[in-house]
Amino acid sequence: MLTNDQWQQLLAGFLDESRELMQRCEDSLNELSEAPDSQEAINELFRAIHTVKGSAGLLGLDLLVHFVHDFENVLMAVRDGNQRLNEPLIDLCYRCCDQLSVLVDAVSEGQTSDPNPEKSARLLDALKQYLPEDDEALGRSLVANTTETLARDRDQDTWHISVRFGEDLFRDGFDPASFVRFLAQLGQITDISLIDSLIPSDLNQFDPESCYLGLEIRLYTDAGKKEIEDAFEFIHESTFLRILPPDSKTEDYLQLLAELPDTRGRLGEILVSVGAITESELQKALDLQSSSVSGKKLGECLVAQESASPQIVSEALKRQEKKKPTEPGAFLRVSARKLDDLINQVGELVIAAAGAQMIANRRKDPELTEVCEEIHQHIEHIRETSLQLRMVEMGEIFNRFHRVVRETADTLQKKIRLELEGADTELDKSLVDRLYDPLVHMVRNAMDHGLETPDERIAAGKPAEGRVRLSAYHESGMIVIEIDDDGRGINLEKVREKALAQGVITAEEDLDDKAIANLIFLPGLSTAKAVSNLSGRGVGMDSVRQDIEALRGSVDIDNRPGRGCCMRIRLPLTLAIIDGFLVSVSDQFFVIPTDWVTECIEAPKGLLQGQKSGYLELRGSALPFVSMKQHFSLPGNAPARNSLVVIAHGQERAGLLVDELHGEIQTVIKPLGPLFDHLPDIAGGTILGTGQVALTLDVPGLLTSVRAMEATTH
After folding, report:
1. Which CATH superfamily is domain 577-713 in?
2. Which of 64, 181, 187, 711 has the least C-beta neighbours within 10 A?
3. CA atoms within 13 A on the CB side of 362
4. What are 273-290's pLDDT values in tens digits?
């Protein structure tokens, strides 16, 4: 009997696995939307749904099992070729997956009943039209199959499959006939016999929920042993299974063994490599070997369990040479909370190591300095490794947009193709989770405002089908995400008129095209003709900018009137630990992320005379700069000399006038709390090795401030 803690632990594991499986379902459906005949995607979808059902059944979660049963049967019919996967069925599968996710969430909240039984009932009724009427078709096809192949030589190329189902087969939601259906897809079943000898003779001992059946099957197929075994992969642990190859296969295996190169290998690896045995058969033989009191050899165990013939084992032993075992690779599921705790502890370690380094430098002790430098190197390695643990591929959220585009295109009655590039680009998991909503706003905005209707596109000399491309790539220590479309682009004149009408700008302001395009990020500004479920309220793009800036990133626009528009997001790779450049103004320390810094120069004397900002000629071009002392209203007299830190973001550059440069440091960014949320151009804080607090600069925000100062000056 499980304790409450054990039950909660099992339930938590099930919920985590189920949510992961639901994402796999979404990915498979996205693939099937593009290629409905992809057998691999169909199998993946079926396996994911079946695993959810099986796990739910083991935990007694009838709420899930009842809903998934018909869904699984429909997918089985698709997998077995008895049902065609068309557009309406794919849409229905999407909706069923959505409802299944709702039921999983209900279970996580402790509910035992369906929160929306009417919706579940409608979906189940819709599924029934795709279900096979009965299993008579299977019997007829098997009879015809047998009749057709009676003339064949059954023994020459026919596999013999002996299976005894586990007693809990029905309780776990399986149907013996489904395995026969799947085998029939691999080849031709030439003979099948039902084994019912385990049925109790005393009917009082008969349990209608228990399975007492077995099958002896003869299968003519070109498939290999592994493919046949995979038909029973979901019941492998509870089922007795023997797969005997046809006589002709023995010669094939012997020929393959003879042609193997003289490389070192273990017996099991050699037999698996030529297909004589499967991985599961090898594992069973290894288990038998380890439990054998007499110390049987692996070859003897394989022969004893009838996985391989003595002749094949003997030939494999001739090819075998001793080899040091290699540990197989494996994955370990770790809670995101534990990874966050690890990153936090590494951050504290970085701060402590910086303090030790400062003490060593102050004492000028060579041995202590050397030890601190060695510790610093190890911490640097730990830092990089720890951060890599939280890095995930952008494909995790990119793949969700197949459905977003599909459903939005149907709503807008437009033909739209989604293209993905750089899905393997990695980004911190904490950023990925917070990036999805802004991307949804931008993609829908591109589809609604940017792309024309099919008739409009044809009239403009474009293909009827519009294109939206999502891409990601690394650039100068940042990640860049682009949302690009081939639509009409932004109507700058319309944006300017709207901004004038709302009083956002004045008629006297002379804004360039880039500045006008950026007006769409202002609150309440929308050029939509009518408010819809997708857009028109003027809050989408404003929230996008706020969300991106909260991630220490920025977003800019590359507008191509008549040819499309590209929204470009730039983000740091991680929000946790960064390489920074330490500067000071008066007695206040500031940290500038190293990725934004391009160079440091000595500022000319008398550069500023009581002004907050100005211009400096740098290698033939004008560089706007701002005094940090004036910008943050810091007290203190001007030092004898100033330094200028040049920062860059995309095509924008600016100089920051500071009192002193302290060099590069590793720093941990910590939030300042709600009391300091109003501070402009500050992204967070960090603790230096001395215990002092340094403020981390928000570089995109600073550049925006510099632009505002330029506009005011002019």
Report:
1. SH3 Domains (2.30.30.40)
2. 711
3. 8
4. 556 677 777 777 777 766
